[in-house]
């Protein structure tokens, strides 16, 4: 989708996108998916697709409130995060330029 002279991937959410149409700096970004909070630890995870100007899409995972040293997840939270990461990874592969796609 072309907006303001910049070609945006179909998954790029304009409110999350930081690409500057004048400098080309920043990154395309999808709407974040939030998993949690995990009942025992209170941990919340946030995942989304991001794509810098040079390169293909990547999956960004963050932990609002600080990054933990180790993570223990209950079954429900682990399944939810796994589904989110699988879905975002597939979209990243579909959106990657041909040279950036894995061959295996």
What's the layout of helices and strands?
Layout: E1 2-3, E2 6-7, E3 28-29, E4 33-35, E5 45-51, E6 58-62, H1 75-95
Antiparallel strand pairs: 1-2, 3-5, 4-5, 5-6
Structure description:
The protein is an alpha+beta fold. It has one domain (2-98). It has one helix at 75-95, and strands at 2-3, 6-7, 28-29, 33-35, 45-51, 58-62. Strands 3, 4, 5 and 6 form a four-stranded antiparallel β-sheet that branches. Strands 1-2 form a two-stranded antiparallel ribbon.
In short:
The chain is an alpha+beta fold.
Contiguous helical run count: 1
What structural class is derived from the secondary structure elements? Answer: alpha+beta
What is the chain-wise order of helices and strands? EEEEEEH
From the alpha carbons, calculate the radius of gyration and give it in angstroms.
15 Å
Helix proportion range: 10-25%
Number of domains: 1
List keywords for this structure.
two-stranded antiparallel sheet; elongated; 6 strands; 104 residues; 20% helix
């Amino acid at each position: 989708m072309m907006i303001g002279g910049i070609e945006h991937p179909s998954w790029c959410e304009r409110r999350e996108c930081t690409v500057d149409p004048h400098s080309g700096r920043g990154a395309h970004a999808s709407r974040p998916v939030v998993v949690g909070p995990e009942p025992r630890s209170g941990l919340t995870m946030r995942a989304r697709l991001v794509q810098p100007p040079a390169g293909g899409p990547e999956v960004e995972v963050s932990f609002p409130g600080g990054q933990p040293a180790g993570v223990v997840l209950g079954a429900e939270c682990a399944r939810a995060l796994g589904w989110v990461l699988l879905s975002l990874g597939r979209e990243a592969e579909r959106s990657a330029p041909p040279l950036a796609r894995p061959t295996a």
